[in-house]
UniProtKB/TrEMBL annotation:
It comes from Arthrobacter crystallopoietes BAB-32. Pfam families: Aldo_ket_red. InterPro entries: AKR2_Oxidoreductase, NAD(P)_OxRdtase_dom_sf, NADP_OxRdtase_dom. Residues 16-293 form the NADP-dependent oxidoreductase domain. This is Oxidoreductase, aldo/keto reductase. Transmembrane segments: none annotated.
Amino acid sequence: MKQRALGKSGLSVSEISFGAGGYWGMKAFDERQAARLVEQALDGGVNLFDTGPNYSRGNAEERLGRILKGRAQDLVISTKVGSLWSDGRNVKDFSPQSMERSLQESLRRLQLDHLPLLHFHGYPNPADPAVEAVLKLKDKGMVGALGVSTGLGGAKRALKLGIFDCLMVEYNLVDRSLAPVIEAAGAAGTGIMVKSPLAQTLYSRDIFKITAPSDVWYLLRALKNHRHKFIQGRKFRFINDVEGLKASEIALAYVLNNPNVTSAVVGTVRPEHLQTNLGASGIELPAGLLQRIELAGAGAKAA
């Protein structure tokens, strides 16, 4: 597993990181299986684990804390403030009091006394009080590096502030709308964590194939959040036919081919999928394949 510097934070992280959320963190998914996936990631060289207080209906942090008990101090654990799971729903709250309380609860659930990386979950509006609050948390020694998990507008505003070590944004072969922001972040020395690097496997011919409850969960989430991208995803089905490489390896390698990307966050509940994802580290895609992906992307954008 290759490692990359997370901006100017001083942290060195695996270029593929483990997303501790989604179905992996749900109570319906057996914790022993969840633990085996974490062990598999660790064995594969992963040292960056990303989660959030509202992930998996509020269950993900606690699960990750139990599984990594006594070992997390040697890893880079990333979580969020600004989003909470309360009374069965997601709640946004960027008030200084709420964020400090949220961080304290996250540290308790994760069984940590210091968090290596803390993200705003979304860009706060107004920003000044929230930014001042997290800087105070950093001064107290509660957190190390600071980041923002956001979209296009929030990423641009965060870069202008110049105080964040990392941006967490969506970028994949189907959706490259944030490519200019990622390039600007690289020029500024800001790390980039990529969410949805596999593009919800919209390029797969088997995306509607259901073999387990988790397949239903992930498909419904893709339909809810990315329905408009299904047609674009079809333009990349040719990556399923590349000899010697699996489609998800190609999708991840494409993201990691961007020198301004620090780490791609992947989440799964299947050991075989995780193994394939881990194998994408260090893959160099042939020039002809990269060119074909770029051309398909231009066509998808035009559509």
